[in-house]
Amino acid sequence: MKKLRSVMVLTTLALVLAPMAAHADSGESGDGSGSDTQLTGIVESMPLGGLIGDWVVNGVTVHVTDATEIDQEDATIAVGSTVDVEGMLLTDGSIDAQSIQGTESSDDDSFGDVEFTGTVESMPADGFIGDWVVSGTTVHVTDVTEIDGEDGLLPTVGSTVEVKGLGESDGSVTAESIELSSGSSDAFSLTGSLQHRPAQITGTWRIARHDVSVTRSTKIVRNGHKLTRGATIRVRGALRTNGSIKAMKLIVR
């Protein structure tokens, strides 16, 4: 009878301990605090006066303590920076950060890739290098800008050209290439990341640090993607003299 009781006790202990061992092997915290997670996104807010406290990264609250490893070797971290977060995902959706690494500073050149077709209104008097004006837009041409002609002809004042380059904060463009074009003048496109949009869709969006005016007539092609912060969007429209863009079409990538 005593032997039978001993077997029953051992069997009961095995049944109790087995789920606990399985839970321990799963990698999840035994106190129900959460599981390991990673997040890459844009810093939307930080504590005033320091790094310790609650951050918001891509809409997610990130708890930063004095034990959090913060790596700013590649990029200085500030509001607007892109960061990689590793930590523990909590039940409320927030993250206890174990490490945060800066990958792109808020002051990096991130004004988006620009393409537009326009008419050359002015050029430097002594060659190609310098500032051009193409359909009202200042285009910075450097010694690494590729300038392509057609049938031996090169761009001159009055030519229609296609400009590709990087958009700057003042609405100008640093040209990577300029080539003669037979396309329609004043066609403009911008490719960059979505930083802000109104809840009601229409209004002023912020894409690659450019103000983009979206109206009811603006066509939005989502391609199955969500209009979330950080999404890559191609804007087609008209560049205004103040550097903002009136959007005719938005394509989410």
Concise summary:
By secondary structure, the protein is mainly beta. Helices cover 9% and strands 47% of the residues.
Structure description:
By secondary structure, this protein is mainly beta. It has one helix spanning 2-25, and strands at 35-45, 53-57, 60-64, 69-71, 82-89, 95-104, 113-122, 130-134, 137-141, 146-148, 160-167, 173-180, 187-196, 203-207, 210-214, 219-221, 232-239, 245-252. The chain is elongated and about 65 Å long. It has three domains: 35-104, Nucleic acid-binding proteins (OB fold (Dihydrolipoamide Acetyltransferase, E2P), Beta Barrel); 118-184, no CATH class; 188-252, Nucleic acid-binding proteins (OB fold (Dihydrolipoamide Acetyltransferase, E2P)). It is built from one helix and 18 strands. Strand 17 and strand 18 form a beta hairpin. The strands form two sheets. Strands 7, 8, 9, 10, 11, 12, 13, 14, 15, 16, 17 and 18 form a twelve-stranded mixed β-sheet that branches. The chain has a five-stranded mixed beta barrel with strand order 1-2-3-6-5.
Give the secondary structure arrangement, pairings included.
Blueprint: H1 2-25, E1 35-45, E2 53-57, E3 60-64, E4 69-71, E5 82-89, E6 95-104, E7 113-122, E8 130-134, E9 137-141, E10 146-148, E11 160-167, E12 173-180, E13 187-196, E14 203-207, E15 210-214, E16 219-221, E17 232-239, E18 245-252
Parallel strand pairs: 3-6, 4-6, 9-12, 10-12, 15-18, 16-18
Antiparallel strand pairs: 1-2, 1-5, 2-3, 5-6, 7-8, 7-11, 7-13, 8-9, 11-12, 13-14, 13-17, 14-15, 17-18
